[in-house]
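Bumping with the actual sequence this time:
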Amino acid sequence: MKPSRSRALEFDPPYDAMFRGILSFRTLAETERTIGQLEELRQRFLAASDKKGVRYCLRVGAVGRMRAEMIARNPRVHPAKRLQKQEAALWFSVWLDTPELFDDWRTLRKETGDFRNLLESEADPARGW
């Protein structure tokens, strides 16, 4: 059984304070910031052998991916916004699957024409986010 949307991002203390408000993917910059914060926490938890903290990081990333995918599939959402959310979902997926490679992947991804087109649509409020 899947956790409900409201319970998916509930955490035990002291983690609740660390993760409060961390998930944001309204723009690609916010997606990037969220993943960066999650990776910092994940690294800290790994160094401390804190398996619960690592699981919570992955849970937040998975919820971000799921929510971005839901928006990307919604036919009522503007097509440009759907593409942008599809990109956000991709970013979360790459980080979840290969967090050690994410920074290199992100650098390469930002050099593509597809990515630059997404940034242009993001800058145009009529077309995007």
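The tokens above came from a reply further down the thread. The mean pLDDT is 90.
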